[in-house]
Amino acid sequence: MPRLPSIRGVSMHTTSLRRLLVTVPTIFLVIFSSLPSANAGQRVVETERIGHPIWRPVDCHLFSAPVGTAESGYAEYSETVASILPPPRHQPHPVLGIGPGSPHRPPYNKELARGVAAQEFREERRFSRREFSSGEGVFLACMVVPSPGARGSSPDFRYGKIIPNRLFPITVDGAAFQRELLFDPNLDFQVPPLTAQLDPPFDVDGHSHFPVFFATNADFGPTGDLRGRYRYDIEMREASGQGWRLQAYFVIGR
Question: Of 58, 79, 119, 151, which sees the most CB atoms within 10 A?
């Protein structure tokens, strides 16, 4: 099975999806995103709190965009992600993928919305088979922000709300399902702390915000009829085990 490029906040294909039991009370939350008028008010991502994280995913979007092919090494995938969060505010980083760029103040809950709109990627809940094959794929993207967070330094400011380095790595385990059957099991990666161990390094107390991107298409699942209902099923957990579960639904039609 092919793998997408390894980028922070982007689906890094491995082979397992953990299903961990939640033993603490959970708070259910629904995130809405700016969809076309035909989908106004429809649910985009369902999120379930695991424990008591001091961060949360916001600004979630489902859209079709270039993912590339095996022949291109799926380079278009990285280009799509970089085009949504472009320089100077975000910069490519060899470890982080899309990393911090020039300092900019919060809020950060509309950066993905602006990027997706600027690139004119089609946001929907229903996509065609053409938008799910031959170099195109369905993306899920969210921004992760402090909620309420801690106080400290980040690449964006000397003192403000952050997700502190002590909570990292944040481990992301995910998969895509088609008609409740496992389609793409390999949407796992880790988000590292912003420390001197990175190259180029950072000397800050934590992240002011960071994106997570997931994408799949016909290349990453079993052969057969692509039509039907799909679900992204994602868990994000900090080092202590607290975090979020995300589910996003879409349909592939004719």
Answer: 58
Q: How many CB atoms lie within 10 A of CB 176?
A: 27
Q: Give me the half-sphere count of Cα atoms (radius 13 Å) on the Cβ side of residue 183.
A: 24
Q: What is the DSSP letter of 223?
A: S
- Residue 213 makes CB contacts below 8 A (sequence gap 6+) with 7, 9, 10, 11, 81, 139, 140, 141
Please give the Cα distance from 243 to 45 (Å, whole number): 15
Digit-coded pLDDT (tens) for 34-83: 333 334 334 579 999 999 999 999 999 999 999 999 999 999 999 999 99
pTM of the entire predicted model: 0.85
Q: Which of 34, 21, 41 is nearest to 245 (CA)?
A: 21
DSSP bridge partners of 211:
143
**How much is the pLDDT for 28?**
30
Rounded-to-integer distance, Cα 61 and Cα 85, Å = 14
Dist CA 167 CA 193 (whole Å): 8
- The answer to whether the CB of 153 falls within 8 A of the CB of 91 is no
Contact 57, 44 (CB under 8 A): no
Give the CB-side neighbour count of residue 112, counting CA atoms within 13 A: 27
Q: What is the pLDDT of residues 125-138, one digit of tens each?
A: 999 999 999 999 99
